[in-house]
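Protocol step 4 of 6: record predicted structures for both targets in the notebook before any analysis. Target 1:
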Amino acid sequence: MKYNITGDNLQFANLEIAPGETIYAEAGSMAYMTGNVSMDAKMRGGLFKGVKRKLMGESFFLTHFGAEGGPGIIAFAGRVPGKIMALDLRGGKQFILQKDSFLCAEDQIDFDIAFQKKLGAALFGGEGLILQRIWGEGTVFINGCGDFVELNLQPGQMVKVSTSHAIGWETSVEYDIQSVGGVTTAFFGGEGLFVTTLRGPGRVILQSLTLSKLANSLMPFLPKQGGSGLIRIG
């Protein structure tokens, strides 16, 4: 597989695959493809993994793409304004991802659900109860809101991250939830009650915007239902 990522903040992952190579992706993420590329919706990993994907809020089926008669091109687009990043997991690397950050991957990549380690992380961490663990001898593409920042934490080095800004980290990184301080800070500091703490060693990928913040910023501008049943703006 060959690939490049194009665009600024509404990016495409452009993949060139040879016959015999397979790419799988979330349903609806394909933007365009050449005529010799075929696609097929499959329950990857069988019924049990399909059910687990539904628990993560993802599609029951994944779309698989293959090329016939020569190299084929497939382009995937993210679901939010932001960036796409390729993660090479060869050599035994594993990542924990937010469930919404997966875009597409080579067929050699596998995944499973990863439950939060503590109840506090599940209830207040902004990621919900379930995360995604992903591994394999290939490349996975992730997407996030805004821009990406990548940190390489040294052993014992810790970073505190505002809710939902951490979209992925290596499994060597320890993660937890901590309160931000006193009651006044928690309720009037504007950062919420808890922050995610990540302790190295390992890579951490942050996004500059979160989906919830994006949605909240758009709410005042969305059409509202008036009393007469007509749609009004503002």
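Target 2:
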Amino acid sequence: MASAANAAESPTVLIFGDSLSAGYGLDIDQSWSALLQQRLEEQGYEHRVVNASISGETTEGGVTQIGAAIDEFSPELIILELGGNDGLRGFPPERIKNNLRAIAERARNSGAEVVLLGIKIPTNYGARYTQAFEAVYQEFETELDLQWIEIFMDGVALNDELLLEDRIHPNAKAQPILLNNAWPIIHATLQAL
């Protein structure tokens, strides 16, 4: 077992998201964050993965929590996966973008790099809101010049075989797919550090 001193010396990757990253309904070792730790170790990275994701979290909650998470873990890289709960609650897109910007700016001011995992919401919220919500990520990425993926749940969101019974949250079979979706930007960012 690594000593606390060794763990403190390892650079940290902080996953800062909601239930999609928290491993909702799964054993913790099944989550894509646990799989990310395994992949990093297999590829020779010394980083430790800290999953600070909270089921039900919104971007507003993220704004209030990011400072404490940075202070506690001093991450080198923050994987930001928030906004889905805001969209499902119909929060104004401009407010979502402002919250994401505040989180990213706080992270960058600490010296951390940030990558963004984009979210889509069901189309039953109406075309106008759905388009405005999805544009948040595109605009945010452009304004802050962030690495991002457009659809974190790509290949999972509409496949009942990869979802829990609630047909929202990814099951254990989906976790490697989520990791593979996020891996290219995580890997590229770590290589550039």
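Step 5 preliminary note on target 2. The helical segments are 4-9, 19-22, 32-42, 59-73, 84-88, 93-109, 127-144, 175-192. The chain has a mean pLDDT of 94.
Proceed to step 6 after PI sign-off.
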